[in-house]
Amino acid sequence: MKTRCVLLLVGISSFASPNRIHAGSGDVPVIRIRSGGDTALDADWRFMKDSTIAAEGAGVDDSGWRLLDLPHDWSIEDLQDGPGGGSIGPFSKESPGGSSTGHTIGGVGWYRKHFSLRGAEGKVVSVLFDGVYMDCDAWINGRHLGGHPYGYTPFFFDLTKGLKPEGEDNVLAVRVRNLGRNSRWYSGSGIYRHVFLTVKSPVHAARWGIAISTPEVTQDRAVVTVKTTLENASAMEAKVVIRNRFLDPDGKKAGQCETRLDVPAHGSAESVRTVAILKPRLWSPETPSLYRLDVEILSNGKGADRTSQAFGIRSVRFDAADGFLLNGRKTALRGACMHHDNGPLGSAAIDRAEERRVELLKAAGFNAVRTSHNPPSVPFLDACDRLGMLVIDEAFDMWERPKNPQDYHRFFADWWQRDLEAMILRDRNHPSVILWSIGNEINERADSSGIVIGRRLAGEAHRLDPTRAVTAAICSFWDHPGRPWQDTESAFSILDVGGYNYQWREYVPDHERSPQRIMVGTESFPMEAFESWNPVEKNPWVIGDFVWTGMDYLGEAGIGNVQAVPDSVNPQFGMPWPWFNAFCGDIDLCGFKKPQSYYRDVVWDRSSLEMAVHAPMAEGLVEKPSLWGWPDERRSWTWPGLEAKIMKVSVYSRCPEVRLELNGEPVGEKRISPDSKWTAVFDVPYSPGILRASGLVDGKEAVSRSLRTAGPAHRIRLIPDRNVIRPDRNDLSYVTVEIVDASGILVPDSGALVRFSVQGDGELAAVGNGNPRDMRSFRKPECAVFQGKCLAILRPDGVTGAITLSAESQGLDPASVVVKTR
């Protein structure tokens, strides 16, 4: 029996239906939309992972296929039959990408969506994909719409000519091929971002056809420029009126204008208008104020199209003498590089997951993110706009020369212009975006061929968006042994802002050679946080630093490892099976801050005092972190069985002097300064109790931190990030799971296995912990805590009600929590 979805043209809404993972019979729920709007087409897709079938035709029997909601990533799901028994959860020893992609599996997957239309006669109907990984093709009712190879840029197809008459069953089929070694990190597989259906009148604003800029900005007045590109799909010229209405962050009218123009038959036309807004509320990370532009389009006296666009009013300027100026104010970029996955959810770009990553970065002190090494999702940028996060929007990780045999280099020559255009036109209205990056560590960056390509990319970026500067991440010639750093001069010459990967030592020499160059550390090592930030504080021409990375991610397994080994053993670049996550982030895979993030708080002068304890090592071994690693420190004074053993305690502070006490008895005092990198290290014989550090100014205590020894594990504690969420499949509740003692103190050495159950109007979307080598399913209702913590993610079914999460573990008091959906 064929399924059918009736699309009623009545109002924009996001999908809301349960993630039915087993095929069922009966009709698919109704999706309600309004003509002219983008309507989420995420619910109720049929899915089959199979490389042998041909499923593009409308008559294919898909009634036995799995029924699911988008966004969807099949690579994060449990493997059914591991090759040779070498599989755990989603991980397989047969993974083509190996440790680079976190030992996960790609393959070929098919998606099919049934729907019928009412009231679309005479309209233009299109489908928009925000991201599909990768190399996909799409069909409507067996008619090939086209393909799209890049896994990170949006694309759309016109469905109009391929649709069946009103009321009949249409089938949109998508084939996705994630084959071979094509990524250096976890990519995920499938339609992992949103899909939208658009129904418009013949005369309408083009896709991404509204460009808003703010060429003049002061505290008293801002000039807002709006360029509107109209399309006319009809056979008659259209006399058009465009009405622009500007609303301030409170929804009050801030300005308006009207334009009349003629749009030729089967053609397009542009309108450019400016409006002055008085006393503007400027967008910044501290005050992310958003305005809205409502656009109404009338054609030959009749309403033809309506659309809205959020935007921010801000000025951006880069200058070697003054640095980066946002709204005329010098701003240092406290940056994080970020891959696109959402940890236990894989690459699925669920709105709340994207938003939470931005919240976590803000809470950890970051004010900027580099979307390494590809364009992000729309929900991620929307969150950056709302929450106040500056963005370097990056296009490519390679150009014509490969980094993996099956990567994007195969398509670059034919597709770079379309993909760069899609990124810039889609993202240019986001006030958070301040720089376009055209590449990361490009192999041919300083060769004659690479200079030609780089100039084309930079030129096209400036043509598409004259309001923003262009950068790229330049690294040393590790891929061309023997070439001197000075050979990068030609690569920097094509950039407005020079991006430096791990090259803080070159800032001053390069400034002496090129005093007008503006520099930013596009990647840096965690253990060089002080060395990478010090030049930002001292030199205006170094505008910021972006650590690799802000948050742990799947793939590049173990590049942030730290090992206790004999002194003769060198640190490893990465780690073999069973390591699956990079473990180099300031924040772990589940969103918990790691010790390096607390040190960065002091380096950035966000905190006056922090403290951590090194884990002890066996005799004859030394601690050797990898380049992206961090010493094995814990914010813990719970070390049972190590009584009287000497523990190294690091105290980080901006105070001139620090004092350490154990159980009220003095351990010692030490001076602290930039020369010591804001660090003092004490040797302390372990004894349970309270370890207390204090910062002294003029000999008096100004600030203190304490670590308290935990007792035996007693109970489970559940802490949801929000107790009330929307009854929407795009919302989530992240529940922190902690093992605590009888006094409620976290037991940091616990590794208890916690089992979960869920009742009510939702599901357990995923579980996980921060352990980079704890391979297990993210989908089964159990998880071992790591350093006393793990995470459970709840997803609503799409109805108003409540979700109850219960947790139990052998020998511990259980816990439960209720999350309401309304």
List the helices and strands and how they pair.
Layout: E1 6-9, E2 31-33, E3 38-40, E4 45-49, E5 66-68, E6 87-88, E7 91-92, E8 107-117, E9 124-129, E10 136-140, E11 143-148, E12 155-158, E13 170-178, E14 195-200, E15 203-217, E16 221-232, E17 238-247, E18 253-263, E19 267-278, E20 291-299, E21 302-311, E22 316-319, E23 323-326, E24 329-330, E25 333-337, H1 351-363, E26 368-370, H2 378-387, E27 390-394, H3 412-427, E28 433-440, H4 448-464, E29 469-474, H5 489-492, E30 497-501, H6 507-513, E31 519-524, H7 529-538, E32 542-547, E33 562-565, H8 595-603, E34 609-614, E35 622-625, E36 633-634, E37 646-653, E38 657-662, E39 665-671, E40 679-685, E41 690-697, E42 700-708, E43 715-720, E44 724-725, E45 733-740, E46 753-760, E47 762-768, E48 782-784, E49 789-796, E50 801-808, E51 815-821
Parallel strand pairs: 1-2, 1-8, 25-26, 25-32, 26-27, 27-28, 28-29, 29-30, 30-31, 31-32, 44-51
Antiparallel strand pairs: 3-14, 4-5, 4-8, 6-7, 8-13, 9-12, 9-14, 10-11, 10-13, 15-16, 16-19, 17-18, 17-20, 20-21, 22-23, 23-24, 33-35, 34-36, 34-37, 37-40, 38-39, 38-41, 41-42, 43-45, 45-49, 46-48, 46-50, 47-49, 50-51
Helix pairs in contact: 1-2, 3-4
